[in-house]
Amino acid sequence: MIKSDFNDGLAEELLTSLDKINKYNLTDTNLKLEKLFKKYLNFDSDFLSTLSITQLETIFVHPKIKDYSKFTILGVLFVKQWTLCEQNDNTFYKLLKGFYILSHIYLNDKDTKIPYYINDLMSSCEELSHYDLDNNALYTLVKIYAKHEDYTKVDDISFELLKKGKKYKDDILEIYNSMMSHNEDFLSTKEMTKDEIQSAIEEIKRL
What we know:
Order of helices and strands: HHHHHHHHHHHH
Structural class: mainly alpha
Number of strands: 0
Radius of gyration: 19 Å
């Protein structure tokens, strides 16, 4: 069990605060979210958004305890600023940063006391899928959807990424080969078949 300076009710406390914020108007929503940044992270969102992911991880993750709860809260609040507040260039930048924070936690199975962050991660994936993203962001989406076993999204985004370049070709082939390891019954629940996966693998190899 991880040790941290948080009490056991942290997740419920944050969730309750976020639920209450949903009931306020746009101006109050932003102000309420900023109060949560100050309460849990001691800094305002604009300052935190100027720091790199590496810097933020250094600040909010204790090197010995490795509790990613504060880091998770940061990612969740960045995503919430896009989904609950005015959508503009500033909040989009924070959405993207929140996406990278939460994807790092999810893909690397980091310890956190905020389990429902996955809902915000998947929300950020859905939001970002409507925009023209760079290759790194697209590949991160592929990895997240692969781990989440949403193979239809994996298929769509993989080919979108490969149209832009072949940098991640071998990595994507590895993901498809991993998908092939599942039996037909499982794949049918994911709206996919082995024949479709094999066909995609052959197409990718020809690129």
